[in-house]
Amino acid sequence: MNQVAVLGDRDSVIGYRAIGMTVVELGDASGAQAAISELIQKQYAVIFLTETIAEKNEDYLKTLRVNKLPAIIPIPSMEGSTGFGMRQIQESVRRAVGIDLFERDVE
């Protein structure tokens, strides 16, 4: 069975432990690359991380996108969404289908 992990500050990720996810608490974004690398070595299939951490490690995450697994998915933190996750989805869809499906029509 594939494993799922979530990385972020304690308040944002602790609840995921209750649903069986591996929780990696990070005080700041500086330890994210090492934590993600370790999860990749352990063959985690899905890694959720807070948008705050994802934004600060964007270049590193871009290098991982060429691989099929793991799927790395930004999620909002307790402070709310920064919009980073939605921008990543828009970019992925735009690359896959060639158009921005999320673009608003001009009225």
Write the layout of secondary structure elements.
Elements: E1 3-8, H1 10-13, E2 22-25, H2 32-41, E3 44-50, H3 51-56, H4 58-64, E4 71-75, H5 84-97
Parallel strand pairs: 1-2, 1-3, 3-4
Q: What would you note in describing this structure?
A:
It is built from five helices and four strands, in the order E-H-E-H-E-H-H-E-H. By secondary structure, the chain is an alpha/beta fold. The chain has one domain: ATPase, V1 complex, subunit F (Rossmann fold, 3-Layer(aba) Sandwich), CATH 3.40.50. It has a four-stranded parallel beta sheet. The longest helix has 14 residues, at 84-97. The protein is globular and about 35 Å long. The model has no long low-confidence stretch (mean pLDDT 86).
Summarize the structure.
By secondary structure, the protein is an alpha/beta fold.
Largest sheet: 4 strands, parallel
Q: What's the CATH topology label?
A: Rossmann fold
What is the tally of beta strands?
A: 4
Query: Strand content of the residues, in percent?
Result: 15-25%
Please identify which CATH superfamily we are dealing with: ATPase, V1 complex, subunit F
On the 0-100 scale, what is the average pLDDT? 86
Total number of helical segments? 5
**Number of structural domains:** 1
User: End-to-end distance, in Å?
Assistant: 48 Å
CATH class: Alpha Beta
Enumerate the spans where pLDDT stays under 50 for 5 or more consecutive residues. Answer: none
Tell the overall outline: globular
Helix content: 25-40%
Return Rg in Å: 15 Å
Structural class: alpha/beta
